[in-house]
Amino acid sequence: SSSYILILQHGCPVCKFSFCTGCLKYKLVREGKKLTVCLRCAKLSAGTTDDSGQQSLPQAALVKPSPGLGDDSVVKVTPITSATDFESQSNEEESIRNRLASLRTVHDDDASSAGQSHNTSSIGPQDTVDIEKRLAALKGTEYKDAAMRNAAAQRFMAPDHRTEEQKVQDLIGQYVTETKLDEVTDSRAAEQDEEIVRRLNALKEIVPPTEAPARSDNSDSDTDSTKDEILARKLAQQYVEEAKIHRRASMDSSSSESLSDDGEGPLPWCTICNEDAVLQCKGCDGDLYCTSCYDEFHYDDRGEHPTVPFRKKRQVKAK
Question: Which parts of the sequence are annotated with region: Disordered (predicted)?
Answer without folding.
Answer: 47-74, 106-128, 204-226
